[in-house]
Each structure stands twice: as C-alpha cells, then as structure tokens.
C-alpha cells in the first residue's frame, strides 16, 4: 500500500483518505475487496484510529467504500445511477457511465395475468401475458432481478426472439410500439433469502424495489415490471424545483 506523502498543512485524515483513494483507483484495492481494518491502518501509518476512521468515512460518503456490519469495510462496485427525470433503460444508463452490462434470461413463459398486472396493462384478469424474468449484471456483478410482463396478444413473436442480445424496449418498438412514458413506484425493502441468493446479498440487506408501467406513444400500456435492485450498487437521481 502507498505511503503518506509529507505535505505541510494537510490534515492526516485527508492524507489517509487520498492514499486509500489512490489504491482503489489504480486497482491495488479491487472492487469488492475488504480493506485493512482501522487498527491495521492506524498502526501502519502511525496515526490514531479516529484519524483513519474519518478518512474512511469520507470515502464511504463518496461511494468508493461501503461497510458490512460485523465484516468490515469493502471497496464498492460502481453504482448504476439512474436519472429518473427522463425515461432511459438500464442498458442505456449503464453504458453512458462506461459500465459493462449484460442480462441473463432466467425464464420466459406465457401465464394468466394476475389482478395487479391486468389492471396495469388494461386487460381482463386472467388474459395471457408473457412473463420475462432476467438477472441483470454490471461489470459481471448481479445488480437487478427484473420481472417484466407484456400482453401476449400484442407481442407473441417476442417468444422466438433472443432476449439476452436485444433489450426488451427495442423489441417492443420492433413490433410497432415505441416506448414513450412510464409511471413507477419506488420503495425500500429487505432482500428475502431467495432474492439475496440470486443477486449476491445477505438476507435482509437493503434493496430498492420498483413497480413500473410503460406506455407507448399512442397511450397503450405495453409493459408492467417488478424490479429488485441491490441497494449497495444502485442509486437514482431526481431533479426537483420549487
């Protein structure tokens, strides 16, 4: 690990912070790697534990580090930051940030619509919908479990498409429905054991849960989605004015 550079007038915690930042940015500390404990860093650099902690807290605030209760402090993975002031897909948002993204299709089947799904898609309860479950990855790390439902009567040909290579919205537009707007609801939840296993979290870890209805240009609801996002790797931005 790098040494502290003697700089007149710069607080020790800032020096510790910048040493750790350099180690992260140059790849000596890898994404997901546990960093040395506060006691170890304090001994290594001849400073107090509180000085080390202040430097670490700055990097946690910046999103470069994160804590896991009882386990220590780890180097954070890049966040998928979604700008919810405009309608963009997961793939568009990630690629704009230079993040490698991929999707693994877990399940595709035609099922009868449950009440909530039917109401969102403006179809009778029980009418057939295509359920597409995908696990989405950022830089090879699972970040989102995505359950999409689309009306089977509108999109039967999608059943024969390669859903891992082509984003769903591109396919909706291919079959005549250009995505225009969305209504969504967000809330904080805890990961149940099955979800935690699928996206690499501890049971009870925070997730950002989302329900969203997508509408085409003509007002037709074309997709209803349940989305489960890792709280440690996913954030959103909303612009507000008064």
Account of the protein in words:
By secondary structure, this protein is of the alpha+beta class. It folds into two domains: 12-75, Orthogonal Bundle (Arc Repressor Mutant, subunit A), CATH 1.10.10; 80-237, Chorismate lyase-like (Chorismate lyase). It has eight helices and ten strands. It has helices at residues 12-25, 38-45, 49-62, 90-96, 115-121, 152-155, 168-174, 193-199, and strands at residues 65-68, 72-75, 80-83, 101-112, 128-138, 141-151, 179-190, 206-216, 221-230, 234-237. The strands form three sheets. Strands 4-5-6-9-8-7 form a six-stranded antiparallel sheet. Strands 1-2 form a two-stranded antiparallel sheet. Strand 1 (65-68) and strand 2 form a beta hairpin. Helix 1 crosses helix 3 (49-62) and helix 2 crosses helix 3 (49-62). The chain is elongated, with a radius of gyration of 22 Å. The protein starts with 11 loop residues before the first helix and ends in a 5-residue tail after the last strand. The relative contact order is 0.12.
